[in-house]
Amino acid sequence: MTDFKVGDHIVDFENIYQIYAVKTQKDLKGAPVKCFFYRPLEASERDKSVVASVPIDNVAKSGLRHLISKDGVKEFFKLLGKPLDTALLFEPKLTKEALYLNDPIKTVPILKLLFQNKIQTAEKFAKTNSEVMERIVKHLSDEIAFVTKKSFKSIHSQILSTLKKSST
Fold first, then answer.
1. Distance (Å, whole) CA 18 – CA 34
2. Which of 42, 60, 80, 115 sits between 20 and 30 A of 34, alpha carbons compared?
3. Would the pLDDT of 120 be above 90?
4. CATH number for the segment(s) 67-167
């Protein structure tokens, strides 16, 4: 997972970033450590100076990954369009843990379970679950829109309409 280079776009469970430098720094013991530096792609004026770095050897632990591929987008929508596996159970405590894995494909069952739970519970759908679901859809919409060069709004609508079709 060390195949990151300057100019690459990367993502964590919240934002899309761009790597702008690779430098060697010293760790706390004075040993040289190769790090890459990145900043949010869409930083506000206040946050334009915000930068982050991560040792290249720790990228796997950082939660950062390359953006989903175009083939990954196709697989995502294909899985999203399939009916929900009836053996899956909605487990709210595991939802956030699974999201921190930052894997769009592994997010599909969680998203489908949240959506199904929303349909089944109607007005009683927990506000926290609603917020989590919207956060997932927003994050995926941002990433997929960036990769496919489509609008956020069209991807957001496509995700929601696919969820509706697969749950009927």
1. 17
2. 42
3. no
4. 1.20.58.1290
